[in-house]
């Protein structure tokens, strides 16, 4: 992994209105990963700690992965995190599983997943695409450096780098390339547009057909950006611990002091702006019109400081799988060796036995059978995805039943010197000012 070209984050300028922060959870280390839906608010930090909070700010789930979390992304009902060990972990079940392993020569900055296909952006200006079974499909060089943005949809991949934004279709054909003023440091997408935060203090918008749109002016380099559905509002976080809101027409509606550092990633959800910062904070900001009006008058809610729930067990990569009871409901799948690779195929009736199953890479052993809650055909067809929990299949009489442990991953957790650890140029809890282009 490569560090963002940054030095210590600066405090907000004097006189900046304080944001109406409802709750704040201190993860313990700098955080890049954030994902929020109707049920949970997820954060992943530089130490590999992943926490899920409810919307009241209570920690309800905890996980640990071997290396620092760079991003959290949703693909349908599946949630993934990209990590500094060059692997992508599936967080959808009770414990994290290794879903993808990136080539050692790909230095990940950001990633996104669509219908099981993974797009990875690296620091050399390249975007690499892998299929659901981690087979490399193609790689393209968009520019000589940079790559802090990659977003995917059914039409293609949108890659932000040091020179601008480049779009490709899923075959690797370049659709368009547009320059930005300054390097791209973060990206967001809505149904018809992509948003690029840049070192030139702007959020620049492009239609997904490559038509340049509005430019939203901030006062410092833009570390992160997001939008309300349809682009009704555009949000940005700069390297001076401030967050902004603009209307679709480009009018700046407000600028607020986060009070907890610069937002390295953000997401808008239901009148709340969720940010993760270089100080290790995960904060929920009320951005409703009423709350902002109160904040302008100096009235902010009492801050709820959230502590980690020690009673919530931490699920880790490599822990033993449970054994399904005899007669348990589910779909039976089996690991098979084919062409030097271990694939997973369905055994239960009603499924195409020739289709592969997207399945954790760290528990694939030829001949081993598992019982999963369900299988779902991918949107593009041609392979299945696991729904729900994974258990060891019930054993026949006389067979030995031993726990299956993700040995490689478990070893990685215990490793004191992972091969792809980021070389940190600044203290773990500090964020650097991005170098202007």
Helix content: under 10%
CATH topology of the largest domain: Methylamine Dehydrogenase, Chain H
Specify the number of helices. 2
The coarse overall form would be globular
Instruction: Report Rg.
Output: 22 Å
* CATH homologous superfamily caption of the largest domain: YVTN repeat-like/Quinoprotein amine dehydrogenase
The strands making up the biggest β-sheet line up spatially as 1-26-25-24-23
Main beta sheet: 5 strands, mixed
Q: What's the CATH class of the largest domain, please?
A: Mainly Beta
**What is the count of β-strands?**
36
Instruction: Estimate the mean pLDDT confidence.
Output: 89
> Quaternary status of these chains?
single chain
Structural class: mainly beta
* Total number of distinct structural domains: 2
N- to C-terminal separation? Answer: 21 Å
Strand content: over 45%
CATH architectural grouping of the largest domain = 7 Propeller
Low-confidence runs of at least 5 consecutive residues? 397-437
Q: What report would you give on this structure?
A:
The protein has helices at 289-296, 407-414; strands spanning 17-18, 21-26, 31-36, 41-45, 49-53, 59-64, 69-75, 78-83, 87-90, 97-101, 108-114, 117-122, 126-130, 136-141, 149-152, 157-160, 164-168, 174-179, 184-189, 193-198, 202-207, 212-217, 222-227, 233-238, 242-247, 252-257, 263-269, 272-277, 281-286, 304-306, 314-316, 331-338, 341-346, 356-358, 369-377, 383-392. With 437 residues, the chain is mainly beta. It has two domains: 17-315, YVTN repeat-like/Quinoprotein amine dehydrogenase (Methylamine Dehydrogenase, Chain H), CATH 2.130.10.10; 321-414, no CATH class. The protein contains two helices and 36 strands. The strands form eight sheets. A five-stranded mixed sheet has the order 1-26-25-24-23, with helices on one face. A five-stranded mixed sheet has the order 27-28-29-2-30, with no helix packed on it. A five-stranded mixed sheet has the order 3-4-5-6-31, with no helix packed on it. It comes from Nannocystis pusilla. This is WD40 repeat domain-containing protein.
